[in-house]
């Protein structure tokens, strides 16, 4: 399929290595495709540096606005420059990586500022991190606190949606003026505290309102609403543009499984005897992979009976538990068809959950807010009214993703790079 320049840019835009390419190697995380692209041979320890950095990109942006806003622009056919997120994502990623490799050496972590892609932003964020670290509860160890502090700050920063490129410094300066929480123990306390304080600051400052806003806070209401929104959007698009839906299948799978089933292709393009080879590996969920969604599903399930007694049962929490639990048998399988069968099963599960629960009464404030929203009602109907032929098309796309990965991905890379070369594909994995 011949893509327009806007479609090509939308699919291939991504988050890059922090510094300019050296020694003829480079890397990019493409959030819409959920793929890592690497180019060239990696000298010495550079291999570990490249992959560690890109995996932090994946971890930080998973099901967060820096990934989902770009995905939404594909469905809305609107250009949203990745530069709107780039400054914040890259700065948080660089500091996270430096803390991981240098803790507990704070002087070394701060000294990296001179090499950072956005030095002033790195310096400010490092100062915010240090002030937050200083307020940690003394009951937790120094190294645990160092990692928890940057994780909490990073999760919070991924909620920020800037309206123009170049706004990252404004965000961090506004954040710098907020005193960190006191005697915190967990990263969740950090991100929820800064979210509340910066939200108050935005509402009180019209100038800040013009430059950025905060996405709805991370939780089951937002994650289920996102899964429904993007599934309904894919159902609509598959009728006229199945190629795009196939290209973004890993992201659709991750949304529907609430982040519990990850399919992350890693493609390394290298030159070998005047030929270009694309070696394709996969990072994916297996029975060995510890998953945050599993732990959350267990916690929500244990709370459900108590909430029912108080008549505050959360419908979206029950959706979350069902989707995560039903994906488990596929995640722990090594069957060749596990990926598309998981997607097929959960697509039907989501439709069943909507049919059974959409008209139920709930006293959960988050659920009531969603269920009363006209747009939410309409997209739920799109899923419920999905025809058998559309369902079949969605399943066929899931089944055919490997064909796309092995044959179409290299064409995307060539078109994005403007290369007029042939690339031989080397499959270096056993199953999706």
The average pLDDT is 87
Overall geometric form = globular
Query: How is the largest sheet built, in terms of strand order?
Result: 1-2-3-6-7-8
Strand content: 5-15%
Number of discrete domains: 2
Number of helices: 20
Assign a percent range to the helix content: 55-70%
Radius of gyration, CA atoms, in whole angstroms: 22 Å
Report the span from N to C terminus: 23 Å
Task: Name the structural class.
Answer: alpha/beta
Largest sheet: 6 strands, mixed
Which sequence of SSEs, written as H and E, runs from N to C? Answer: HEEEHHHHHHEHHHEHHHEEHHHHHHHE
- Total number of β-strand segments? 8
Return residue spans where pLDDT drops below 50 for at least 5 consecutive residues: none
How would you sum up this structure, described in words?
The chain has 432 residues and is an alpha/beta fold. The protein has two domains: 5-218, no CATH class; 221-261 and 285-404, no CATH class. It has helices at residues 5-12, 46-61, 65-76, 83-102, 106-111, 119-134, 142-157, 168-176, 187-203, 206-209, 220-237, 242-247, 249-256, 292-309, 315-331, 338-357, 365-371, 374-384, 388-399, 401-417, and strands spanning 15-16, 26-30, 35-39, 160-162, 212-214, 263-272, 275-284, 423-427. A hairpin with a 2-residue loop joins β6 (263-272) and β7 (275-284). It is globular.
């Amino acid at each position: 399929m011949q893509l327009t320049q806007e479609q090509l840019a939308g699919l291939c835009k991504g988050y890059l290595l922090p510094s300019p390419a050296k020694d003829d190697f480079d890397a990019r995380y493409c959030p819409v495709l959920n793929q890592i692209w690497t180019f060239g041979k990696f000298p010495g320890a550079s291999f570990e540096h490249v992959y560690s950095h890109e995996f932090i990109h994946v971890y930080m942006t998973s099901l967060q606005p820096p990934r989902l806003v770009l995905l939404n622009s594909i469905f809305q056919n609107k250009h949203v420059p990745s530069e709107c997120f780039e400054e914040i994502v890259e700065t948080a990623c660089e500091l996270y990586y430096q803390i991981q490799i240098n803790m507990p050496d704070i002087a070394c972590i701060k000294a990296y500022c001179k090499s950072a892609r956005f030095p002033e932003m790195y310096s400010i964020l490092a100062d915010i991190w240090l002030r937050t670290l200083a307020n940690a509860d003394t009951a937790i160890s120094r190294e645990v606190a160092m990692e928890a502090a940057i994780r909490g700050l990073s999760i919070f920063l991924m909620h920020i949606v800037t309206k123009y490129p170049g706004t990252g410094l404004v965000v961090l300066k506004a954040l710098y003026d907020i005193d960190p929480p006191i005697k915190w123990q967990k990263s969740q306390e950090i991100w929820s505290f800064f979210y509340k304080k910066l939200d108050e600051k935005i509402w009180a400052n019209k100038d800040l309102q013009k430059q950025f806003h905060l996405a709805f806070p991370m939780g089951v209401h937002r994650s289920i609403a996102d899964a429904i929104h993007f599934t309904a959007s894919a159902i609509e698009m598959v009728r006229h543009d199945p190629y795009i839906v196939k290209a973004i299948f890993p992201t659709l799978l991750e949304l529907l499984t609430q982040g519990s089933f990850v399919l992350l292709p890693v493609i390394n393009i290298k030159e070998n005897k005047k030929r270009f080879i694309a070696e394709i590996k996969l990072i994916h969920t297996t029975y060995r992979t510890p998953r945050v969604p599993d732990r959350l599903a267990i916690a929500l399930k244990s709370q459900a009976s108590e909430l029912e007694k108080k008549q505050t049962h959360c419908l979206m929490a029950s959706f979350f538990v069902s989707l995560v639990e039903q994906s488990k048998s596929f995640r722990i399988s090594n069957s060749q068809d596990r990926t598309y069968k998981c997607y097929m099963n959960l697509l039907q599960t989501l439709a069943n959950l909507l049919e059974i629960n959409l008209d139920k009464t709930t006293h959960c404030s988050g659920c009531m807010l969603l269920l009363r929203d006209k747009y939410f009602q309409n997209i739920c109907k799109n899923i419920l009214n999905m025809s058998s032929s559309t369902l079949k098309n969605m399943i066929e796309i899931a089944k055919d993703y490997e064909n796309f990965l092995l044959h179409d991905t290299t064409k995307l890379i060539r078109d994005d790079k403007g290369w007029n070369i042939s690339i031989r594909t080397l499959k270096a994995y056993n199953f999706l």
